Automatic annotation (TrEMBL):
<dbReference type="InterPro" id="IPR016193">
    <property type="entry name" value="Cytidine_deaminase-like"/>
</dbReference>
<feature type="active site" description="Cysteine persulfide intermediate">
    <location>
        <position position="97"/>
    </location>
</feature>
<dbReference type="GO" id="GO:0016783">
    <property type="term" value="F:sulfurtransferase activity"/>
</dbReference>
<dbReference type="GO" id="GO:0097163">
    <property type="term" value="F:sulfur carrier activity"/>
</dbReference>
<feature type="compositionally biased region" description="Basic and acidic residues">
    <location>
        <begin position="266"/>
        <end position="279"/>
    </location>
</feature>
<dbReference type="GO" id="GO:0005737">
    <property type="term" value="C:cytoplasm"/>
</dbReference>
<comment type="similarity">
    <text>Belongs to the FdhD family.</text>
</comment>
<feature type="region of interest" description="Disordered">
    <location>
        <begin position="266"/>
        <end position="323"/>
    </location>
</feature>
<keyword id="KW-0963">Cytoplasm</keyword>
<dbReference type="GO" id="GO:0006777">
    <property type="term" value="P:Mo-molybdopterin cofactor biosynthetic process"/>
</dbReference>
<dbReference type="Pfam" id="PF02634">
    <property type="entry name" value="FdhD-NarQ"/>
</dbReference>
<dbReference type="InterPro" id="IPR003786">
    <property type="entry name" value="FdhD"/>
</dbReference>
<protein>
    <recommendedName>
        <fullName>Sulfur carrier protein FdhD</fullName>
    </recommendedName>
</protein>
<keyword id="KW-0501">Molybdenum cofactor biosynthesis</keyword>
<comment type="function">
    <text>Required for formate dehydrogenase (FDH) activity. Acts as a sulfur carrier protein that transfers sulfur from IscS to the molybdenum cofactor prior to its insertion into FDH.</text>
</comment>
Length: 323
């Protein structure tokens, strides 16, 4: 015995996505569910809005060698306009990419056909904190390799309806949303997107384009992701683990946070601040952040929150959910 052992590794190969023969993008992905990936990517880019917008999606069998399943050519349905050449992404996508600026955020809000702002769906805090376990139970590739991200679609009563995995977190999201596109489930009102890791800008943007009102992530969100969530009306929940969570936007959708006024953004306390100080209002933000003042603090119902007067508080503030 030489002390070595076999190990299973996640597969990573390039997928070139074409539209009627023209290259749109190349992404590094785990092979499988590629047609779903294409539908999800096209939806996120605003090129399609439902499954009927795609006439066909076929692998290019004219490519020689092992790459024959790494080129996917999509044709749009009659009457659908192809994106202009400047929309092409000629570089290889290897990880989440982002954009900055108010105009870019406005573009997201305008371009989505399914704005989540008016979605009146709600979820209980118990459902929210249980979603990562439901996702993890269906991450079969992760069980074998430990090297994939997971993304799931769940109902507001806590049923997981679809899970997809990939070496790229953005690909996993495209695959699971693409599944919904093909199933003609758009828009995804009353659904939650569940993420096995952090919530970056691109993942929240994809949720907005699909009309998903709630995003639940095991890891942390980025500041830009919170900004996008606030801008598009998505309830963004992060650090969902150990029966706890932080809510970064639209906490009114989470039952158990009923004390929070609709549309208000709230700030979390650290664990050290809980207990005897739990009823105290938070200290005001530092000077230069706009002069927001803590108006009222609530504890109870499984959720600890503080509402603010004045303009919305700085990006990244959250409500704390704790059992």
């Amino acid at each position: 015995m030489d002390g070595t052992t076999a190990d299973r590794l996640a597969t990573e190969e390039p997928l070139e996505l074409r539209l009627d023969g023209r290259v749109l993008t190349t992404t590094m992905r785990t092979p499988g569910d590629d047609v779903e990936l294409a539908h999800g990517w096209l939806l996120a880019e605003g090129i399609i809005s439902n499954g009927g917008d795609v006439r066909s999606a076929q692998f290019d069998l004219g490519v020689a060698g092992d790459d024959s399943m790494n080129v996917l050519d999509v044709s749009l349905a009659p009457g659908m306009d192809a994106p202009p050449p400047e929309r092409e992404r000629l570089t290889t996508t290897t990880s989440s990419c982002g954009i900055c600026g108010t105009s870019a955020l406005d573009a997201i809000a305008v371009s989505t056909r399914y704005p989540p702002h008016d979605d009146s769906s709600s979820m209980t805090s118990d459902v929210v904190v249980g979603l990562p376990d439901l996702l993890r139970a269906d991450q079969y590739l992760f069980d074998q390799t430990g090297g994939t991200h997971g993304a799931g679609l769940a109902t507001c009563d806590g049923s997981m309806i679809a899970v997809r995995e990939d070496v790229g977190r953005h690909n996993a999201v495209d695959k699971v949303i693409g599944w919904a596109v093909i199933q003609n489930l758009m828009p995804l009102t009353g659904r939650a997107l569940v993420l096995s890791g952090r919530a970056g800008f691109e993942l929240v943007q994809k949720a907005a384009m699909a009309g998903i009102p709630v995003v639940v992530a095991v890891g942390a969100p980025t500041a830009l992701a919170v900004e996008v969530a606030n801008h598009t009306g998505i309830t963004l929940v992060g650090f969902v683990r150990d029966r706890g969570a932080n809510i970064y936007s639209r906490p009114d959708r989470i039952i158990g946070c009923a004390e929070v006024e609709r549309g208000k953004t709230v700030e979390a306390k650290s664990d050290e601040q809980r207990g005897e100080r739990a009823g105290d209002p938070f200290s005001p933000p530092e000077s230069g952040t706009g002069g927001w003042q803590a108006r009222e603090s609530h504890v109870g119902g499984g959720c600890e929150t503080t509402t603010w007067t004045g303009n919305p508080p700085p990006t990244g503030m959250a409500a704390g959910l704790r059992d």
